[in-house]
Amino acid sequence: MPKSVIEADYVVIGAGVAGMAFTDTLLHHGASTVAIIDAGHGPGGHWNHSYPFVRLHLPSRHYGVESRVLGNNSIVRGGPNDGLSSMASGPEIVSYYRDIMDHVFLPTGRVAYFPMTRFDWRAHATSLVTGERRAVKARKKLVDATYAAVEVPSLQKRKFQTDEGVRCIPVNDLVRNALLLHHRCGEDRRRRVPLASREWRRSRQHQVDRPPRCLVDQQIEGSVHPGFIRDVFYVRSGSVGSNW
Question: pLDDT for 187-197, tens place per residue?
Fold first, then answer.
């Protein structure tokens, strides 16, 4: 049996873009209390799991909640978007929503936030951390802010088969693995790759237009360094060579 009750005028399921915007409107145009229940670890919904290199496809000022502008209304100078309004990156959006939760919603005393908590649509919510199950009561309205059902590949089980021994990873992990590569193979990059680069350049002068990269396949087997360039080097059992 549930030990306690999550109760508020409005119970919002999901702390993504829709849930945050709805809550912001309630807070600034009324006196209602709100309980936000979200299975994620922080506000921002799918932006917490999106590709690190993804940006908005519209000016930042047209996104977010009513009470606080996203970004600084700056104009991009240089590059393909020269003269256009800035478009926030994924990390900027996540930071924006966390700031709103911490410095706008919670200080009002009218918002209760329950992250890492899954709602079962049968008036109960269960903590994904402690396993505690609680009853949920909305005095006015239960709001489903997850109806858009945005799917991020890194959170889905693949719907196709791969050959034995093939490691399949979502695009998200290419960038995350690259960060690990930079950390793990820093010494090999500084000590070994320059030598390999000189040998490689002597044999393939016509292909040299970028510095080589380092890939430690013992640490991340099957991963690919971002950029998909031809001059990727790998380190295996102390040897260095080209993997193309």
Answer: 554 444 444 45
Supply the pTM of this predicted model.
Answer: 0.66
3-class DSSP assignment, residue 171: helix
Paired residues of 114 in beta bridges: 37
**Residue 93 to residue 107: CA distance in whole angstroms:** 21
Residue 22 has pLDDT above 90, yes or no: yes
* Residue pointed to by tokens 């360094």: 225
Cβ partners under 8 Å of residue 101, min gap 6: 15, 20, 42, 43, 113
CA angle centred on 123, ends 117 and 129, rounded to 5° = 20
Structure tokens at 225: 């360094």
When pLDDT is cut at 50, 70 and 90, the band that residue 202 belongs to is low
Residues 6+ apart with CB under 8 A from 139: 7, 8, 9
Residue 92, classified by CB atoms within 10 Å of its CB into exposed (0-12), middle (13-18) or buried (19+), is middle
